[in-house]
Every structure is written in structure tokens, then in C-alpha cells.
Design brief:
mainly alpha, elongated, two-stranded antiparallel sheet
Length: 92
């Protein structure tokens, strides 16, 4: 199998998080409470694209937003090749 090169676009992922929060009617304070954070700094870093949530926090965020992690993440790279290889494996 050929190597795949993917990268997460932090800034775009932050915009996606912000968009999904707005669509679901959540504030940063709501997310802070749901995650049990003492302060909202981490969430502001996520929506500004300066950092990404940990894997555990991505799972919580995806459940809170009623979507998958794949719908939150904005990925750049060989996504087309990834799907092509995935379908090849399904057919075999």
C-alpha cells in the first residue's frame, strides 16, 4: 500500500468548531461546563486555530455537537487516495 500524507488544518478546524457551536446554540461557557474545564482558554485556542483538542476532548466535542470527529476535522492531503484505497479493501 502506498503511504498517505494527510494534515489537519488547525485554523480551518477551529472555524468548523466555531460554526458547529453556533449551529447547535452552544457558547464557549457551555462547552467549558460540559468538559469540566476551570477556564475557557483551551476552547478559545481551539476556535482560533492555535491548538487542537486532545483525542478525548474531540470525542466529547463530537458527542456534544451530535456529529463525528471527521465532520469537525478539516483535513488536507491525500484524502482521495485514502478513499480509493478504502474502497479497494472493501471490494477484496
Amino acid at each position: 500500500m502506498e503511504p498517505m500524507y494527510l494534515s489537519i488544518q488547525q485554523k480551518e478546524t477551529g472555524k468548523q468548531i466555531k460554526k458547529l457551536l453556533m449551529e447547535n446554540g452552544y457558547t464557549v461557557k457551555d462547552v467549558q461546563g460540559a468538559m469540566g474545564f476551570e477556564n475557557p482558554q483551551a476552547i478559545y485556542k481551539w476556535i482560533s486555530g492555535r491548538s487542537l483538542p486532545s483525542l478525548d476532548n474531540f470525542v466529547i466535542l463530537s458527542r456534544l455537537l451530535h456529529t463525528s470527529m471527521e465532520n469537525i476535522l478539516v483535513i488536507d492531503g491525500d484524502v482521495a487516495r485514502l478513499w480509493k484505497n478504502y474502497f479497494k479493501l472493501l471490494v477484496q
